[in-house]
Amino acid sequence: MISLILLTGSLCFQDVPYIELVPIPGNSTHFDVSGYEGDIWKVLQQILGFDYTVVASVDGKFGAPTANGSFNGMTGMVERNEVDIAISSFFLTVERAQAVDFSNILVPAQ
Fold this sequence. Notes:
This protein is an alpha+beta fold. The chain has one domain (2-29, 37-99): D-Maltodextrin-Binding Protein, domain 2 (3-Layer(aba) Sandwich). It is 25% helix and 27% strand. It has helices spanning 35-48, 73-79, 94-99, and strands at residues 2-8, 14-15, 19-24, 27-34, 50-56. The strands form two sheets. It has a three-stranded antiparallel beta sheet with strand order 2-3-4.
């Protein structure tokens, strides 16, 4: 079984109806996801048979280039292999796409 980490911008991050953190009953420190992206994630989990843990961005940011050329936020955590995947409603930019891989866009910006 593959173990992946699901990453959201922060543990208070909500972008309903796309992604929403849901407390796991009886556990005040662990969360699950719901919403469109959460539903897609759970279908992939069932089909591919992997486990995941929800963690927050180390600095609560989505990711921007820093002075030394690396990234902060979620993008930086993926770039540094601190997590395997980031799921959130943040925008694909040229800079981020040069640092990490992106999936196809699920919901186009309006």
